Amino acid sequence: MIQTFLSLFKNKEIRGKILFTLAMLFIYRLGSAIPVPGVDSEILAASVSDNSIINMMNLLGGGTFERLSIFAMGVTPYITASIVIQLLSMDVIPYLTELAKSGQTGRLKLDKITRYLGVILSFVQAFTMVMGFDRSYGVMTNGGIAAYLYAATVLTAGTMFLLWIGDRISQFGIGNGISIIIFAGIVSNLPFNYAQVYNVLVDTANQTAMFNGIIEFVLYLIVNLVIIVLVVIMQLAVRKIPIQYTSSSLAKGRNDITYLPLRINSASVIPVIFAQAIITAPQIVLSFVNYEAYQSLSNFLSLQKPLGLLLYAILTILFTFFYTDLQVNPEKIAENLGKSGAYIPGVRPGNETKEYLKKVLNRITVLGACGLTIIAVIPYLLPMITNLPASTSVGGTGIIIVVGVAMETMTQLKGQLTQKQYHGFLK
């Protein structure tokens, strides 16, 4: 690992990309500390600590919610818009379905539509949030519709600026820009989360309670370590399908067979993010508009309750299959194999290859979906059966996202490094 990092920094182009990404993240963290004009952030931070949904959004946003910074909305509206557009593209709206099948040009148009929808969702959510915060906690120095509209405009502009930063990271930096921003927000708040859990568990005034609290805190650290190991296993596990080329001679035998790797979990940690967005969105809106209705709904959808946790698990499984279907296209793979003169031994090229790949992909996705769901549910299940505080569940979910994004970024960096080495060798 150390040798890999040294190799990365020795490469001038990759070093520049890393420094550019760090510069963009510095701008993100700087903006996260700037509150929206007209908001008393001290009153807000003291008032929202008892709202579990806000605490979750605060962790994923790197502490931006408790300050109501200009980046408080994060990229959540864009993620929600992506979910909506992708669902509508599945033979619901013919125009969107046609764009989804039109290759790169269609994807660019879909992305533009997604961003327009993201602006609308961001403004509506920001306006509702600011109005709810002010009516519930009195955080605005000057209340009124005009002040709400102004604050919502600032928050929406902050979200779109974050999307611009994400695009720049994807184009000139390393990794997926949106994922890197989410990663940075979680990592920036993890030390505070660990300190908070330690303070809750360890009671220094009572030696017996302090000893028990230390044991529980060590258990919490072990659980996080287990989650990291499981996420790494899920990210690295692949199903190798043998591929042989028609030009291969019989004399070469099995040594000439290559493999098509299909990941057990092609969707990575995206299903966890999508499932949380679907569950928390209605609760967030109601927590600002009607707190009594929010309390009633949270009894059903709260991830600290069995029914809400079951729904979360089901959504994670469904989104794993949904996003895998978007990421891996068996028909396209079969077509590319046919064009390159390759085939799967024992399977006819064309439609049979497509059906075979689809069957294999569905089977391994079952394993990947179940594994990812177990990993996602463990942090919320432990506080139900142990004395660990409910705040540990949010931290565990953050660990899942952080590890997944970190591994994807490292894979891309290694790929770029290998490409540069081959390029230098050819020169």
What features would you describe in this structure?
With 427 residues, this protein is mainly α. Helices cover 75% and strands 4% of the residues. It has 17 helices and three strands. A three-stranded antiparallel β-sheet has the order 2-1-3. Helix 8 runs antiparallel to helix 9 (145-172) and helix 10 (177-201) packs antiparallel against helix 17. Mean pLDDT is 78; it is low at 249-254.
Which properties best describe this structure?
427 residues, mainly alpha, 3-stranded antiparallel β-sheet, 17 helices, 75% helix, globular
Rg, alpha carbons: 24 Å
Distance between the termini: 27 Å
Total number of helices = 17
Q: Helices and strands: which structural class?
A: mainly alpha
Q: Which stretches are low in confidence, meaning pLDDT under 50 for 5 or more residues running?
A: 249-254
Number of strands: 3
> What amount of the residues lies in strands?
under 5%
| Mean pLDDT over the full residue set | 78
Let me know the largest β-sheet: 3 strands, antiparallel
Order of helices and strands: HHHHHHHHHHHEEHHHHEHH
3D shape: globular
Report the helical percentage: over 70%
